[in-house]
């Protein structure tokens, strides 16, 4: 941890699950040692997580990712596993998040409709969504994160794009 703390130049962190189908990145894989070490990386502006099992981190997102929340501006989730509200609840606390990439998805457990993120990120940069099929995600995101105004959107194989395009009419 001491050596990691001496690396203020770490601006990007990529976390991979072993296999998105069976062994994604879950709270069980994030043991205490790794959790302490990741807290030393306080300058990361870009966070990429592959095969994130969001359900396993619920509802303690801040406990596991708290040091990244005030710094990360670019978040990329590749094949996250979670319901619509869980994905939104995970994204919500990133206070300075501008760019969001959602690549592929795996439908998770049924939504807990009481989950509302404590904060809505600015989301003023770019949105990239490819084959992201979590049902109702765009509609919920628009309702909860009012005033979405992405400068750039790249949407491919995403159902129900019209609500997002209407919400971002100036994009």
Structural class: alpha/beta
How far apart lie the N and C ends?
42 Å
Uncertain runs with pLDDT below 50, 5 residues or more? none
**What is the general shape?**
globular
Strand order of the largest sheet: 1-2-3-5-7-8
CATH topology tier name: Leucine-rich repeat, LRR (right-handed beta-alpha superhelix)
* Name of the level-1 CATH class: Alpha Beta
Strand percentage, roughly?
Answer: 15-25%
Architecture blueprint of SSEs:
Blueprint (H helix, E strand, L loop, with lengths): L1 H4 L6 E5 L15 H7 L7 E5 L3 H4 L3 H5 L8 E5 L2 E2 L1 H8 L7 E5 L2 E2 L18 E5 L6 H8 L7 E5 L5 H6 L4
Parallel strand pairs: 1-2, 2-3, 3-5, 4-6, 5-7, 7-8
Task: Please explain how this structure is put together.
The chain contains seven helices and eight strands, in the order αβαβααββαβββαβα. Strand 1, helix 2 and strand 2 form a beta-alpha-beta unit. The protein is α/β, with parallel strands linked by helices and 171 residues long. The model has no long low-confidence stretch (mean pLDDT 77).
């Amino acid at each position: 941890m001491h050596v990691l703390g001496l690396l203020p130049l770490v601006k990007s962190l990529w976390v991979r699950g072993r296999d998105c189908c069976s062994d994604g990145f879950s709270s069980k894989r994030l043991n205490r040692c790794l959790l302490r070490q990741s807290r030393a990386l306080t300058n990361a502006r870009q966070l990429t997580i592959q095969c994130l099992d969001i359900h396993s981190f619920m509802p303690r997102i801040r406990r596991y990712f708290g040091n990244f929340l005030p710094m990360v501006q670019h978040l990329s989730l590749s094949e996250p596993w979670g319901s619509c509200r869980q994905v939104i609840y995970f994204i919500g606390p990133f206070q300075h998040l501008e760019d969001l990439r959602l690549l592929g998805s795996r439908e998770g457990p049924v939504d807990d409709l009481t989950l509302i993120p404590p904060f809505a990120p600015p989301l003023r940069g770019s949105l990239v969504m490819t084959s992201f099929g979590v049902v109702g995600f765009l509609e919920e995101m628009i309702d909860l994160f009012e005033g979405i105004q992405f400068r750039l959107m790249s949407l491919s194989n995403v159902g129900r794009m019209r609500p997002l395009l209407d919400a971002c009419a100036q994009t």
